[in-house]
Design brief:
With about 400 residues, this protein is of the alpha/beta class. It folds into two domains: about 60 residues, Orthogonal Bundle (DNA polymerase, domain 1); about 300 residues, TIM Barrel (Alpha-Beta Barrel), CATH 3.20.20.70. Helices cover about 35% and strands about 15% of the residues. It is elongated, with a radius of gyration of 22 Å. The chain binds S-adenosyl-L-homocysteine and iron/sulfur cluster (SF4). The site of iron/sulfur cluster (SF4) has 11 residues, from loops.
Length: about 400
């Protein structure tokens, strides 16, 4: 498919075992305040303690209450007795020939999700997951063939960002000058799952990512990708305010019904209506239209022309995604010349039309390929069991 595979699979040390204590990671500020009140923190101190603990966890990356030196020793012991600061467990880390890192992460219940870090010259983007699997069944997407197991909690979503910062060694030293060039500078909600089917948890996690006393990512550096869950789009503008990407992928309802079946519920016209209001409400810039290039399905000149006509009046950028194949996928990637011609028509109509270079293909980390590695890992475990006479 691409460059030679130089796989580097390592098993990282396990996180702490599950303690049974309440995990503070993923609580909103209000939730953290309430948790502190519940263990007897005086009402008058609660706000200040919330701020202090918040900074330890999200600004400095501290995982140990004993290290929270601006809190009284007895109070630290009290926190330790009731709470934990836990992240999902990194099972394996795989590094692609192009530097892309893929983390296989285990969450409570033994489910697994994948998190992908994509380094670029001017930025580093972390692609995070919002669900295990997806209930939607887009016909070109590998994740869509996996049965939904469950929604991730807010802690499991922000935990993906935190574990990547751990791996990148990117928690600031106290007193060090502010680091303006971050390795992890952007987040895209483009991993497994439909983020708008898990709205509250995604919102709470992104609020933590944006909090000025913590990870401090600007809302303009977070992009949420949706297949088009129309009723939640306005809420995203109001309650998160991040950038929006939409998996558009077709220019007629007939084709979009086949590719993105949620189109049968909210068709192209309804979706475009919701998108027209988004930039104003979210005070955000352009909407990204994601368009996967499928040979002979949605990649004609007529499609390109229809596309620019449809989105007229919406501040937009068209992100063309060469289809990433997966075992048994029913489509083929459009030829390169075809993708370029399509991009050219869109570009001449006045829209930026970057072609997304597939990253991390050799480790199945590219868009829509997430799932396979997990499945393969599962299969090999099964094989092992069979060989051991257990299967
Ligand atoms: N569920 C959300 C976000 C996750 S998918 C959504 O659908 O928007 C992230 C992007 O990858 C989407 O635009 C999706 O359509 C695209 N994608 C899925 N499978 C793909 C594949 N096999 N090749 C290329 N892009 C794919
Ligand atoms: Fe789910 Fe997005 Fe894949 Fe569609 S493209 S099945 S919404 S993850």
């Amino acid at each position: 498919m691409t460059a030679p595979i130089t796989q580097d699979v390592l098993t990282l040390p396990r996180n702490l075992p599950e303690t049974g204590k309440r995990n503070l990671v993923g609580l909103t500020r209000e939730g953290l305040r309430e948790a502190l009140l519940e263990i007897g923190t005086p009402e008058k101190q609660a706000k200040m303690r919330t701020g202090q603990i918040w900074q330890w966890i999200y600004q400095w990356g501290v995982r140990d209450f004993a290290a929270m030196t601006n809190l009284a020793k007895a109070y630290r012991a009290e926190l330790e007795a009731h709470f934990s600061i836990e992240l999902p467990e990194v099972v394996t880390k795989t590094v692609s020939a192009d530097g892309t890192r893929k983390y296989l992460v285990r969450i409570a219940g033994g489910h697994e999700v994948e998190v992908v870090y994509i380094p670029e010259t001017d930025r580093g983007t972390l692609c995070i997951s919002s669900q295990v699997g997806c209930t939607l069944t887009c016909s070109f997407c590998h994740t869509g063939t996996q049965k939904l197991v469950r929604n991730l909690t807010a802690g499991e979503i922000i935990g993906q960002v935190m574990l990547a910062r751990d791996d990148l060694g990117e928690w600031p030293e106290q007193g060090a000058p502010k680091n303006e060039t971050r390795l992890l500078s952007n987040i895209v909600l483009m991993g497994m799952g439909e983020p708008l089917h898990n709205f509250e948890n995604v919102r709470d996690a992104m609020k933590i990512a944006m909090d000025p006393e913590g990870i401090q990512l600007s809302r303009r550096r977070i992009t949420l990708s949706t297949s088009g869950v129309v009723p939640e789009i306005a809420r995203t503008a109001e309650e998160i305010g991040c950038l929006l990407a939409v998996s558009f992928h077709a220019t007629t309802d007939e084709v979009r019904d086949r590719l993105v079946p949620i189109n049968k519920r909210w068709n192209i016209e309804t979706l475009l209506g919701a998108l027209r209001d988004y930039p104003r409400v979210a005070n955000s810039e352009r909407i990204t239209f994601e368009y996967v290039m499928l040979k002979g399905v949605n990649d004609s000149d007529a499609d390109a022309r229809r596309l620019v006509k449809l989105i007229q009046g919406i501040p937009a950028k068209i992100n063309l995604i060469p289809f990433n194949e997966w075992p048994g996928s029913p489509y083929e990637r459009s030829d390169w010349a075809r993708i370029e011609k399509f991009a050219d028509i869109v570009h001449k109509a006045g829209y930026a039309s970057p072609i997304r270079t597939p990253r991390g293909e050799d480790i199945m980390a590219a868009c829509g390929q997430l799932k396979s590695a997990t499945e393969r890992a599962r299969k090999s475990r099964k094989d092992i069991a069979a060989e051991a006479g257990l299967g």
